[in-house]
Amino acid sequence: MIKASIGIVSFASVILLSFQAMAQAPMENTAPVCQDGIDNDGDGFADCGDQDCQLFTFCTSPKVSTRDATDHWALAGAVVGFTSGAVVLGLAIGAEATNGDPVAPNVIGGSAIVLDIALVPVAAAGAKSARRAANVRGCLGCRIAGWIAYGLSIADGLTLIGLGLGAKILVPTGLITSVGVLGAFASWLMAIDALKARKQAEESVIARPGSTERRFSMVPYIAPVGDERGFSGGVLGLSIVHL
């Protein structure tokens, strides 16, 4: 009987120690812990990547702000990009047509470079204003290629002006136009990025799973009142429905 009692006590102690160890082990199942950027329970998954954190809405549903998705000027940025690109190309063609004149190509080409320097970032900023919303990425390839073309067109344009003003070298035919095409290409790529970002932002408003912004509607209703003996009256009320 004594041995049996000792065995029961020992078994109970093991169970108690196991529960204490489990209670003291680091867990990842509370809202603060699931947002601290640390793999607290050491299972190789941190925060929303851990299955224990999936019960929280901030892990299961992306937050899409209607304000971020609609408060942007991506369309204006696209208009600036397409328009400035066309103007830059036109100025480059004009500078090409006056190639050989000691002044005109440098003035016209310089105007194209100044316009390109000023307005390509404006178009890029318009696209960026739409990318503040969740799931809006725009056209990454367009941005990368656009910034590369932007830098090359400015560097090449300044080099051509330097050759024309300083060294008094006649620029080969077609070179000025090609630089203008590069500058226009940069503007148009930024405009395409802005249009794509705008479209994605609009789509995120139409389908916004897990949106933190809630809408409510009030619906009137009439309910009958009675018992087993029959109808005795009615109740008029107003219900609030979450959309």
Explain how this protein is built.
- With 243 residues, the protein is mostly helical.
- The chain has two domains: 2-60, no CATH class; 66-206.
- The protein has helices at 2-24, 57-60, 66-70, 74-97, 104-130, 140-167, 175-206; strands spanning 216-227, 230-242.
- A two-stranded antiparallel sheet has the order 1-2.
- Strand 1 and strand 2 (230-242) form a beta hairpin.
- The protein is elongated.
- Residues 1-9 and 207-216 have low confidence and may be disordered.
Short description:
The protein is mostly helical. The protein is 59% helix and 10% strand.
Whole-number count of domains? 2
Percentage of residues in DSSP E strands: 5-15%
Rounded mean pLDDT score: 76
| Counted beta strands | 2
Tags for this model:
243 residues; mainly alpha; 2 domains; two-stranded antiparallel ribbon; 7 helices; 2 strands; elongated
